[in-house]
């Protein structure tokens, strides 16, 4: 199967729910209000519950409790709410995958951890929108899930070879299949009509030097992935710590001394967010 054939028949690949696109349309409307956005979100009570739990988590650390969606919108902003809805929508879209080849709970622990680490790194650079880094980290390995859905036999070979050789999985995927999970994930994000920067983060998280339009964001996801592997938070299917791109560390321009703080925040916040996002 070629890369083009993989995406030619998309019926078997998850898509984002209608509520996400309804929300995005309303947010872009010049006369949208917190109430009108809240009405759309009210159609999914599970989503509302998770958004409020997330708003009240240590991820934000608000001094007062967030009781309603309009209140959350006021504190977080529309784009941040959209990004958080996107994150929960993506996780829900991949709920039905068998854990025969990959422990899905552990996969999401790793992905959430990567998102938390990315947001923490972004905050150290005083970026005002850590949520988009969280989403980038959450989605960075999403191509692996798509490949498990469409080509489980080939992915079984890849994961078995990885266990035997300790070669990084994306390199084995390129050899066995002809393309890899970062490329699949980046393309899937494009098909979902999500921001280009997000597609870049996913597509180049193992090769940040190839990112042109989102080099800083991609470098952050690359380093976050390495941090989470080093902390052994969850399991993505990879059993070794990926190689660090010197260019990525140079690109984010952080002092080594901040790593202890980032790692500590990643450990504590990941545990709390997993209780919100992962259904037992």
Describe this structure in words.
- The structure is a single chain.
- This protein has helices at 3-8, 18-28, 34-41, 45-55, 69-76, 78-93, 104-124, 130-139, 142-150, 152-165, 169-176, 181-191, 196-203, 215-231, 246-252, 258-277.
- It has 280 residues and is mainly alpha-helical.
- The protein folds into two domains: 16-93, no CATH class; 95-280, Hypothetical protein af1432, CATH 1.10.3210.
Structural class: mainly alpha
Tell me what the CATH architecture of the largest domain is. Answer: Orthogonal Bundle
| Total number of domains | 2
User: CATH class of the largest domain, anyone?
Assistant: Mainly Alpha
* Low-pLDDT sequence parts: none
Short synopsis of the structure:
With 280 residues, the protein is mostly helical. The protein has helices at 3-8, 18-28, 34-41, 45-55, 69-76, 78-93, 104-124, 130-139, 142-150, 152-165, 169-176, 181-191, 196-203, 215-231, 246-252, 258-277. The chain has two domains: 16-93, no CATH class; 95-280, Hypothetical protein af1432 (Orthogonal Bundle).
Task: List strands and helices in order, with pairings.
Layout: H1 3-8, H2 18-28, H3 34-41, H4 45-55, H5 69-76, H6 78-93, H7 104-124, H8 130-139, H9 142-150, H10 152-165, H11 169-176, H12 181-191, H13 196-203, H14 215-231, H15 246-252, H16 258-277
Keyword list:
66% helix; 280 residues; single chain; 0% strand; mainly alpha; globular; Hypothetical protein af1432; 2 domains
